[in-house]
Amino acid sequence: MDSAAASNGTITVHVDFISWVNQFVGGPGTGTTELHERVRPGDTVRTVLKQVSERYPTLKASLWDANDRSQLGSHIEIIVNDAILGVSHELDSTVQEGDRIILAGQYIGG
Predict the structure, then answer these.
(1) pLDDT in tens, 7-47
(2) Nearest CA to 104 among 14, 16, 7?
(3) Of the candidates 56, 53, 11, 54, the residue with the CA atom closest to the CA atom of residue 36
């Protein structure tokens, strides 16, 4: 943990936005945009995603279900530490220092 984070009792979680999803956080719509989120020990994947989406209204509108803002929508895939959400982490799983959350767009069609 870096000294600034240690001094204010926070941990850092890395949040990557891949491909077209990064346009929601000021990216070019291609490649990867990375944010470093400071959260409290004991916070969850949901906390991190809510914190980021509160700063970026277009992300908030795309990430969360329009009828139930406590649930994810269906167009953005969430990956936590190299596993798709629901495999080894859930929305309410606690995050740890250095965890990586990836938001990647789903592609539909053929």
Answers:
(1) 589 999 999 999 999 999 999 999 999 999 999 999 999 99
(2) 16
(3) 11
Of 58, 64, 66, nearest in space to 22 by CA: 58
Cα–chain center distance at 79: 8
Pairing of strands 76-80, 32-39: unpaired
44-101 pLDDT tens trace:
999 999 999 999 999 999 999 999 988 999 889 999 999 999 899 999 999 999 999 9
Full-model pTM: 0.89
> Phi, psi (5° rounding) for residue 27?
-80, 175
Count of alpha carbons within 13 angstroms of residue 79, beta-carbon side: 11
